[in-house]
Amino acid sequence: MATFLTLTSGNGLCAAGEQGAPASTTQASDSSGSADSNSRSQREALSDPSTADEKEIAELIEGLASNSYATRIRCRDRLMRIGLAAFDQLREARNHPDNEVAIVARRLTSGLRVQWSTPSDSAEARELLSEYGSHSVSQRRGRIDSLAELPRRDAFSPLLRLARFETEPVLARAAALALMGLETRKHSQTLDLVSDGSTKTHEAVEEDRDDFEASQIEDTLRGQDRISSLWLMQYAADLRHGRLETHAWGDLIKQNRDQLSPDEAGSMSERQVSTSELLKLIWITAERAIARGSKEEALEIVVANVDLIPSRTRNLIETATWALDHSLYEAVVAMHAVHQDLYRKSPILLYSAAEAYSRVGREEDASALAEIALAINPLPERVVQSDDEVRPDDGGPFNPNQPAPMHPQTIENHAEAHIEIATQLVDRGLFQWAEREYEIVIDRLPIDTAVSSFARLQLATMLGELLRHADVIKTLEPLTRRIDQDNEFRDRLIARRFSYTVVQSNMDFHRGLLMVEQGETEAAKPVLRKAFEMNKENIDILIAMYRLDGDTKWKESVSVTLDEQIRQAFSEVEDTRNSMLRAGPFQPSKSELAKRLNAYAWLVSNTTGDTARALRYSKESLQLTPQQPALMDTCARCYFAVGNIEAAIEMQTRACELMPHSPPLERQLAEFREALRKSQAEAADKAAQ
């Protein structure tokens, strides 16, 4: 049985037991009169572990190499009783030149039965730390990442413990980085973001927490010279002073640059750090500066270390995305200047640079880069035969003045690349460039190809979110007309799980909304009714019908339909909930129940009905599937429906943070803020009267 150590709630370390065979002799035999010339102090202190100092511990560690078996056992047992006081020196001894010492030191510090959790840890933290030491390095890293996802109050102590006592340097640094990253994460509760305390109370709590955490770090790591410990001690100084010590971090990063390992494998060393680790430290430091309102300092730190970014497309994309997400546009411009050759080969990198140039007011440079990006993954020019058809580029005589025909598979691959790029541009809110990427596929591929059809559907979705109803119709109408005329084409699309009725319903929905915009309310009513009958899953159509002005007959008709849908939505929630209680192979998932709960909540909160139940259902959906912006969007609408505008704004703001550049989410947030402004203005007018 291997040695194992137990971390107690008081940060204690006690030996839990060991049985070992005699170690091999590595030194010349001691004289019989003196088993070990350095063992006197060791024997005198055996009965009192608390009296150990660094000198004695060092002597005990050297005693592990004695040629006397009895001395080796005494030294080992004494080190086990000393516990945490010997941990750091034992960790250093893992790389002792004497192999016998290194082996025992590894056993003492890396036993598979280390208990890393304490009774004061949360249940989630204890579960993640259960048998932590028995896992591989990659698995333990995963546990560290999972701990970092817990609320700050639950993650701080376990991560500090790992940063202090994890014997693998790379994992100790990972824990330290995760701990510092807690400061920039927003731990808003998605079930109920309304707090009972005042803003001033929360500010006081934050100050007390910073002082407490600084003390915990200082008490735990004082005197440590590990790279991870130096990071955390500087972090503690920041917490103590209430500001980011930018120059101190700059000096620390410069010091770490001198400790860079030549490759990622070298980062396993206690004295070296990998490029990826140092870049993550820079990112976290910059994020902390931004969180404290010091964007200029964040930019300075990042730009000064742009040269650290590996000259690989994946690394550049990752860094550019992070910089754009944090509005560090000048950093992306600097990256483009350093890595122009790689940028010209990657549409995503080019668009990231184009976005950065646009954000800093260099529109001509942005447009030029976007043009280069669009030209990558070329598609053949096509000759339009009619509004609905183009001639495939698969025949005709060879013309030496024209480029050779592209292989059909190459064309499809390039088209799919354009669609993927467009999807990413939509996520970044770069709708104009995304539209061009979709349109090049639509314009240059036959309408009866699946990839062209998919591009139309994706473009229509984007245009719909932008409320460009006429453009949605223009995009979808040629497709629906071709489907009506070509049964073989329809069958091919159906085989790819393409729903014609859903597309037709969507087109009619936007046709009706366009009519409403143009003042043709009466003409819009049958169009919207038809759209809903074709796709009753799209409850936004019913909501639009409910909000439409009309006579008594129209309102009664919509009310009947609405009552049916609300009862059906409620029934689906209860049926799904009951099915989850019954054992069986087809048991619904939590996400399925969350979907049903959200559908009820969205429908009721936007129309009429039991809004209190809608809010309960929405919160339950978030409990089942947390951090889902679409569900948070519904929850915000439910708060608004019950009259809690402040909570609605807070929840919607969080949803927009998780899903930036979403037009529907941003419109709803603007609606709530305008409602609050009007409410406050009315209250002020009443108070003035």
TrEMBL record:
InterPro entries: TPR-like_helical_dom_sf (IPR011990). Residues 10-53 are annotated as: Disordered. Residues 24-40 have a biased composition (Low complexity). It comes from the Bacteria. Residues 41-53 have a biased composition (Basic and acidic residues). This is Tetratricopeptide repeat protein. It comes from Aporhodopirellula aestuarii.
